[in-house]
Fold:
Amino acid sequence: MIVNKNDSILNIKDLHVHYRTYDGFAKVLDGVNLWVGKGEKVGLVGEAGCGKTTTMRTVLRILPENAVVPKGEIFYHGEDILKMKPQKLNKVRTQGISMIFQEPAAALNPVFTIGTQMFDVIRYSDSGKGRSKEEIKELAVKAIGEVYIPDPERILNSYPGQLSGGMKQRICIAMAIVTERELLIADEPGTSLDVTILDQVHRLLRGLVEKKGMSLIMITHSLGVAREMTDRIYVMYAGNIVETAETKELFKNPLHPYTLGLLESVPRLTGGGVAEGIYGRIPDYFSPPKGCRFHPRCRLSEEKCREEKPLLKDVGDGHQVACFKVQGVI
Structure:
């Protein structure tokens, strides 16, 4: 499903995020631009440490205390989340946007039962207002059933430590969808799970999002997952969006050197030797390189790349790339 930018429910504009440390400021996000349409499934792809989770945590304003947002806007239905008062922000968190965190064990409180935690999620949302304890429990049981966990009654009385990794991840999904939400952010759900459970979790997530008509932001380092789960993809490198396009278009015609490097890094079933990977590593955020942040690892970089930062430019059919070489500037 592809929608028009004018119909976006979330629109991130020129977002910068720095982390204050004893060594100075780590300048992680460097002008991120991203939007999501109603009912659309969007992928955010990149290496570990490139700023994907920081971007989404900024959307919900749950960054750590040492984080600073010196510049940028995050519009949710036309209102800037970064300027919202606590009451309005709480409404967005409890009614509009929910997030599935990367590590389910850290997302669930080990000293409370699953039932206690799910009941609280329902009770403090619009879905739980005016409902009796029995009705709230029915909603929780229904949500657990939707994520295909047997014997929901027993699960409600269980503690997180009594559940397997796959079950805990499903509980996190159930907690995210137990109340009506418009946008679901999934931060690499199932990173620590084995591949069979991981595939089940992804299929489950996609099915629930489509069934409920929700928008989805899928954070992942895997282009394969993004290809299966999304309509559009944003490729992120070192705090910058370097390429974005419809999923089919991106795989048919990848243009940015980083995107090409990611695709070349994927092992092929047909063989042909070991995947090359991408030379080097993500830059030091305390002293990021001038110009294009990818230029130290790019085989095509020239002097202009080392001096000026390329901006996202449309190269046709909504396909945007931040690369002077692709744009024909050099």
